[in-house]
């Protein structure tokens, strides 16, 4: 199966500019392509997974990735999908976040020997002369067309600032610049970026008279309810192990809804499509095996096989006497922390943000300790309670946390 057909079969492609040109380009390893990542946090998250997996897959077939860090566009902020204006960041924060991204991306993409590039659009956008940009680039854009773009619709309701209005021009200029500097003839992005991507393609045509620049959008990773995947009750699922431990990462995928397992295997893993097709009718214990495969494959990709094996062993240890709990998120208490009541314990572990939240959770029978529901907010624990492997707290149905003496 050729690459383009595989991408279609895995449900990864949303829109393309010229399907026949795109097929020929990527099937024959002729694409030098870029995907942009705005460094608005110090870690990538599951929302970036689709792009990273696609870059990895494309590179394996001889195409050359360019990871574009939006150090310049992050100064403006992408209005796509936002109802409010993004918070402004300092140049120092943006650079720190970009450095963190590069380290994480290296697990997916081979940057050695020029096989891939990582560039920062701050290197060219921040030096642009505004009047020159208006004359040379602004003249190529129709305000009427821009206002019809999907990326501006939500912001228009609450007021679109002129600052954000320039985002499309900045992103289009990126494609124009990368085309000239690196022969970048292809852009990938989320489906919400389609208007911006078409803007870059049109700018290359109008300014350079070139018609070989193409674009393709990636299907957004949505669950069966149409909501973006990668969020939990405690926030985003990060790729940084300090923010989301390998065990928590594993558990996120192990606990996806039954209706989402096959789709995630297709979109995010290298498991052959014919093997996945056999899983489409699985139920019960067989479907649980598919979930374990998904969790293991993705945890291996992000954190390495050793961490994936440890996470899997810990997950299975929860339901076996004497199981290995070493991979579970753990809080260590000092002697001066004891005795400690149930409410304070939940706050100490970070399972609850406040004592009020902890009280409500206990009163709603939402917390178990070593398999038994906490009956009262007045329950306290002394040093003897943490002997051996310590206490295992279960919050809700899927969140586990261990507490030991330090």
The tally of beta strands, per DSSP, is 15
Radius of gyration: 24 Å
Could you give the distance between the termini?
54 Å
Sheet with most strands: strand arrangement: 1-6-5-2-3-4
- Regarding quaternary structure, what we see is single chain
SS-based class: alpha/beta
Q: Tell me the β content.
A: 5-15%
Summarize the SSE layout with pairings.
Elements: H1 3-9, E1 13-16, H2 19-27, E2 32-37, H3 49-60, E3 64-69, H4 91-105, E4 117-120, H5 122-125, H6 130-136, H7 143-147, H8 150-158, H9 162-165, H10 167-182, E5 186-190, H11 194-208, E6 214-218, E7 231-232, E8 235-236, H12 246-254, H13 261-268, H14 273-279, H15 284-303, H16 305-317, E9 330-333, E10 340-341, H17 342-348, H18 355-363, E11 367-369, E12 372-373, E13 380-381, E14 391-395, E15 399-405
Parallel strand pairs: 2-3, 2-5, 3-4, 5-6, 9-15
Antiparallel strand pairs: 1-6, 7-8, 10-13, 11-12, 11-14, 14-15
Helix pairs in contact: 10-11, 12-15, 12-16, 13-15, 15-16, 17-18
List keywords for this structure.
single chain; six-stranded mixed sheet; 18 helices; 43% helix; globular
Description:
This protein has 406 residues and is an alpha/beta fold. Helix 11 links the parallel strand 5 and strand 6. Helix content is 43%, strand content 15%. The relative contact order is 0.10. Residues 78-86 have low confidence and may be disordered. The N and C termini lie far apart (54 Å).
